[in-house]
Amino acid sequence: MEQAAQAASGNGLKLTLAWAFVGIPLTWGVIQTCINALQLFK
Q1: Residue 30's closest CA among 40, 18, 22, 41?
Q2: CA-to-CA distance for 24 and 2, rounded, in angstroms?
Q3: What single DSSP character describes residue 42?
Q4: Residue 38 is inside which H or E element, if any?
């Protein structure tokens, strides 16, 4: 039983790191796109 709990915890950590690996650059890109788009309307 303990191995299953440890595996689930490890999978959760991997999932969190994977989302961070994708989400942080994605968020940065969206912010940069919005900044550049706002410059078009000045």
Answers
A1: 22
A2: 33
A3: -
A4: helix 2-40
